[in-house]
Design goal:
Elements lengths: L8 E3 L16 E5 L6 E5 L4 E4 L5 E4 L8 H6 L7 H7 L12 H9 L4 H6 L4 E5 L2 E7 L5 E5 L5 E3 L8 E4 L5 E5 L2 H10 L6 E4 L6 H8 L6 E4 L5 H15 L5 E3 L9 H10 L1
Parallel strand pairs: 1-5, 11-12, 11-13, 13-14
Antiparallel strand pairs: 2-3, 3-4, 4-5, 6-7, 7-8, 8-9, 10-12
Helix pairs in contact: 5-8
């Protein structure tokens, strides 16, 4: 019998949970293992770390290789020394411009129609860190960035990570999804019938939505999250929270595990 390989756990910075029992010393931070929950260390500069208990190696996804340390830090919800915090949280500014033909071609390649862009006039374009990004604003007024014709997602230094909300019209039916393209795809597939749409931007933003949604005039919620582990976990958390307030809730996720609504849109277009 072949020995079992200890394959690394690839992750995003916003998955890290601070180990409350230790003080971070940049570039090394102390987190909880994403596999066993035990204590672990992670070196931001090297993009890698390891659990002290189970030995699981943690590595950032490959697209973070080109990011600055500060850009990675802005994605982490960690306690850093005051001197480092002052430097890393000095706000960055960008100057978005209207979508170029290249950006529009990328959006079209994801199946998003011109009608959808007209109903959701939220996307702009910016060049930053040597790359071109789509950008849109979240409810904290910070920009969310997604690489054009790439896989990277980013936040500016000093930005606040939270959800985005887009209203097609005044109304009381809210759809909640994870990624921007998934939510736009859901709206397009359902003929834009629901009134309001929430893009979580990360499942880590679920508590923010639970805090805020009940202050809106809401009579119906559709949970249209991804059909994966993170999506199912977020769906259960949101369902339990909204059920306690007697809100009518519909769960509507893609039937195939591992899919989001953009996958479904592209499959229907290619049939």
């Amino acid at each position: 019998m072949k020995p079992q390989r200890n394959l690394p756990r690839f992750c995003d910075p916003d998955e890290f949970v601070q180990d409350e029992g230790k003080q971070n010393h940049f570039p090394t931070v102390y987190i909880r293992c994403l596999d066993c929950g035990g204590p672990a260390w992670f070196n931001i500069s090297k993009r890698a770390g390891q659990c002290y208990t189970c030995g699981k190696v943690h590595k950032l996804h490959k697209h973070y290789k080109d990011w600055s340390d500060d850009a990675v830090v802005t994605r982490c919800d960690l306690t850093l020394p005051a001197t480092r915090t002052r430097v890393s949280q000095a706000p960055e500014t960008i100057h978005p411009v209207p979508l170029s033909s290249r950006a529009l071609a990328y959006i079209e390649s994801r199946g998003i129609s011109q009608k959808t862009l007209l109903l959701f006039p939220v996307l702009q374009e910016v060049t930053h860190w040597g790359k071109t990004w789509l950008c849109w604003i979240n409810v904290a007024g910070s920009y969310e960035l997604r690489e054009i014709f790439g896989t990277a997602r980013a936040m500016l230094r000093g930005a606040t990570k939270t959800y985005s909300r887009f209203d097609v019209r005044p109304g009381t039916h809210v759809v909640v999804g994870e990624g921007l393209f998934s939510v736009l795809s859901y709206a397009q597939l359902h003929a834009y019938v629901p009134d309001r749409y929430v893009v979580l931007n990360s499942t880590s933003c679920v508590p923010h939505l639970i805090r805020d949604l009940l202050t809106w005039e809401v009579e119906q919620v559709t949970l249209a999250l991804d059909a994966d582990k993170a999506g199912f976990s977020a769906m259960r958390e949101l369902y339990r929270a909204f059920l306690t307030h007697n809100l009518p809730i519909t769960v509507d996720h893609p039937r195939a595990v591992g899919k989001d609504w953009n996958d479904i849109l592209l499959e229907e277009m290619n049939d």
